[in-house]
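We emphasize that the prediction below concerns an isolated chain of 267 residues; any contacts that depend on oligomerization or on bound cofactors are therefore not represented. The input was used exactly as deposited, without trimming of termini.
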Amino acid sequence: MSRKKTLRGRLVSYSAWLIAVVIAVFGVQVGLLAFPQVLLSKTAEAGSVVVYYRGDPDPAVQQLVDATDHRLQIGGFGNPESPERLFFFRDPGLYSLFTRLARLPSTPQGFGISFLGTTYVSGPQVEALRTEAMGERTGHIPKYSVWEGSIPHTMAHEIAHLYMVDSIGRSTWVSLPRWKQEGFPEYVANIGLIRGDSGASLLRRVETFLDEGQWSSPRSWDRIHYEAGLLMEFLLDVRGLTLGTIVADSITRENTYTAMMEWSGRQ
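Result of the prediction step, given as a token string:
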């Protein structure tokens, strides 16, 4: 009897120890994701954005933050009274650690965790697009696409994901098709600059989208992102819909694409 009690006691003790270790590891993971400023202690601020980074104070980082805030403000989306937190990584190894902590299947240019209210962007991942074969072939165009390798574009895009979740709710956002999830952030990141660019009308950018020579393949991820931004811009600025209306199931990619092609005279 005493042996059984001793064994049972050891199992209970071991189980309690194992549970404590799991909880501690989970706590460290969540803690780092929620408060990366433990490792990224320097800050750069501009209006609606606060960026944390590692290293000595760097004017180049401040310029990126200024440009990101500018994109948001001229598009009508920045809110200086409630600035968004963004964590900017210049060390690929450290960024890779955070993507693993977030359990991402790959290493994107940036990502966000809406329930923590945090976004993360890798400078090297974004800038790598400038040196990839496709980027060199197109001269880093089309404009307002990922091939520009623009860090402010990516920063504004990731922040816009948080805007979207705050506006429509996380449960609604999770249920959306990919083109809506990515289209609105692309719209937010670019629309302010587009409105001031006489050579970047929606009609011209539809032509760019249809030119397959500008893209790595007909349904590549870069072209899909670009298309999503066009579709969102068509719904918001041409059709005059609101984001709350666009999230409805009745607004489909197929119907929106057909309507945009008819409007542009391409169908």
